[in-house]
Amino acid sequence: MLRTAVNGLKSGDINAVSLYTHDGIELVKGKAEISTGIIDRLKRFNISFIYKKDNSINISMLYDRNIIAGLHKVLSCFIESNGNNAEILKRYNNEEVKEFLRVNNEFGTGIAYGHIMRFYAEKMAEMLGGRKNVIYDFVDYRRKDNYLIFHMINTCCMCMAAAANMGLDKETIIDAGIGTMLYDFKMKTMPFSYKNSALNKEESEKVKEHTVLGYEYLRSVYGIPSRSSAIAVQHHERHDGSGYPKNLSGNEILLLSRIAAVCDVYDSMTSERQHRAAYNPEDAWDYIRTNSGVIFDPEAAAAFLKTVPRFMPGDIVELACGKHAVVSENYPEKPENPDIILIEKTGENDIIVLKIEKKSEKVAAEGGFQIVRTTGKIR
Predict the structure, then answer these.
(1) What is the CATH number of the domain that holds 169?
(2) Domain assignment present for 58
(3) What are phi and psi of 4, to 5 degrees?
(4) Are 271 and 154 in the same domain?
């Protein structure tokens, strides 16, 4: 499947992945044929691209889109209601409530957000299937104005996958998921953090309060484990002690918080914000690698660099030989050397010339086919 700009869609194209809004409403079903009506709907919701069916590009989403949509629904409700359990009960029927409780080994008719977070974290952990060699290279549909929910969910997806690649047990992976689903939600109380320019010194200090405020609130939410809520207060701590709020260092920072810190920075860097453009994936990836053992825990950074590849499938890259190519597939054992498809421009069309399977040792050693940088991406 290939990320394709909405303006470039044609009637008859096939949507490869179910597309949901930030609050979990389905806009386009997977495998749906694109029509002018669908294109108009996407434009009304300011959706800039979809994943069009294309067998030459392989993307590893890891998680079922219906589960991710459900997570969008509950997080949207949590943020809108400021964690009011009575409000969440209005969004689900009795059978859904029973299922949330069953996963938590509880019975009755009342649920808390903690029940629902565990439900989704457990479903996501099941999809990882105990594997220790997973890769995650899905790009979501966020915009600047709905950044927060997408940011927390994508950080959650990366964090759980990285924890799996570290060989952590299922309960620990679930707790990593629960913690990163909500770790940054108090940023919503910091309106100037979304302004169109860099923060001044006073604002920067004020924003730091979101860590403690988030932790204090999550500790009061029934069903959220202590090491999950700790992610909220520790995700800005740094390996060398240069972080906040307590200048913790090394193993003073809990393991799940160390993993979350890496995923949080990468997702923030690769997101367009009001005050800056998004970084290219390889620039953010290189930043994590360069700072492994400095501000990031080296074990957590290593797991992340194996989980999230340096280049995203579907992006156009420049090669050392001067040619251009499309990234077609990534592999966890070679996160810097994806399969690529060489392309040449002829007028308005991209002509596919040759597929280069960079996962082979021989081809990866060919200097001319080494990727220099990303030159084009659709977001």
Answers:
(1) 1.10.3210.10
(2) no
(3) -130, 130
(4) yes
Residue 97 maps to a domain: yes
Cβ atoms of 59 and 1 closer than 8 Å: yes
Full domain range(s) for residue 367:
316-376
**Which structure tokens are listed for 261?**
């810190």
Per-residue CA distances from 100 to 78, 109, 267, 366 (Å): 16, 10, 29, 52
Q: Which residue bears the tokens 């290279």?
A: 137
pTM: 0.91
CA distances for 185 relative to 32, 76, 162, 226, angstroms: 33, 10, 22, 17
Coil, strand or helix at 230: helix
User: Of 42, 78, 238, which is closest to residue 153 (Cα–Cα)?
Assistant: 78
For residue 8, is it within any domain? yes
Q: Is the dihedral angle over the CA atoms 256, 258, 261, 263 positive or is it negative?
A: negative
CA gap 162, 288 in Å, rounded? 14
Instruction: Please count the other Cβ atoms lying within 10 Å of the Cβ belonging to residue 368.
Output: 9
DSSP 249-268: -GGGS-HHHHHHHHHHHHHH
Q: How far apart are CA 268 and CA 266, in angstroms?
A: 5
Q: How far is C-alpha 195 from the geometric centre of its chain's CA atoms?
A: 23
**Separation of alpha carbons 5 and 59, rounded Å:** 17
CA nearest to 257, candidates 278, 276, 234, 225: 234
| Site of tokens 């929910």 | 149
Q: pLDDT, tens digit, for every residue of 42-80? A: 999 989 899 999 888 999 999 999 999 999 998 998 888
Residue range 282-341, pLDDT digits in tens: 999 999 999 999 999 999 999 999 999 999 999 999 998 888 999 999 998 889 999 998
| Helix, strand or coil, per DSSP, at residue 216 | helix
3-state secondary structure of 30: coil
CA 117, chain centre distance (Å): 17
Instruction: Report the b/e string of 79-98 with b at 16+ CB within 10 A.
Output: beeebebeebeeebeeeebe
Domain assignment present for 291: yes
pLDDT, position 265: 97
Number of domains in the chain: 3
C-alpha gyration radius of the chain? 21
254 shares its domain with 342: no
Q: Residues 373, 378, 379, CA angle at the centre, nearest 5°?
A: 110
